[in-house]
Amino acid sequence: MTRTHPPFDPELAAALKAVHEHLSPRITPQDIEALRTNPLFAVVDEDLSRNGTVELRDLSVTGPPDGPEIRLLVLRPAGLPPGAPVFYHIHGGGMIIGDRRTGVGEVLDWAVDNGAVVVSVEYRLAPEHPDPAPIEDCYAGLLWTHEHAGEIGGDPDRIIVAGASAGGGLAAGVALLARDRGGPRLLGQLLMCPMLDDRCITPSSQELDGAGIWDATSNLTGWNALLGERRGGDGVSIYTAPARATDLSDLPTSFISVGSVETFRDEDIDYATRLLRAGVQCELHVWPGGFHGFEGMVPHASLSQIASAARAAWVRRLLAVG
Length: 322
Prior knowledge:
The protein is α/β, with parallel strands linked by helices.
């Protein structure tokens, strides 16, 4: 079958050629080890401390029942008064790479701009730690954050769960868990190009073959690492693959963004649509010509600037009324 997809934004297309020199769009199981050591994903504390204006704390806290302790990174702008809102951040990486520092710099920007604390969780990775280890680690981290919010200068009633890609899918799963287990009442969920559906049956999940970022092969690699032979079958939890949830009522105010040229486009549009039908306030953006993670990879592109501004505006509005 010939795969077709919308065109890339011209400015992003030029940058994508440079990205492909360091990161292949097609990831197989054999690539996981090399990806984990790729300097492209390295984040140093000097960059996060912002010349000493941000305080960093690494914590080991109680994990899920029968599980190990988990690591949290707490970032707090210096001089921030107590009772600040909290961004609970879950990193991306297709369920197979990343740590608590991955992607947190962008969330830190929101915290600095809005006077907030960031808590970034490090969850166990697949395939060494398959489902449900990642989602249970993330939920345990949320429980700790809620229970100890005052200790880190945060407000337990103003927690926004946020994540990109696999982190966005886990953030959506955490929101469902919090609802169904009677956990913390979240102020919002900020889902950036979230990875929601293990079934890989939408047109966009099959459109990209060796193009863009995180193509169809990569998506199978990530989901198979997490679920093994269960992928696509009946025994997959809605918390692991939120697209499977049939009841999306009573979830927090939501923001979902996705590029028009990426694997997760259709499942993200569908999730946002069903949130709205369930009576949940949801803002959805489908960025024309955007590839997966374009805002972070090409931050100075015009489309990236527009997308980042829209997300920042949503955060400001949410915190103004929260």
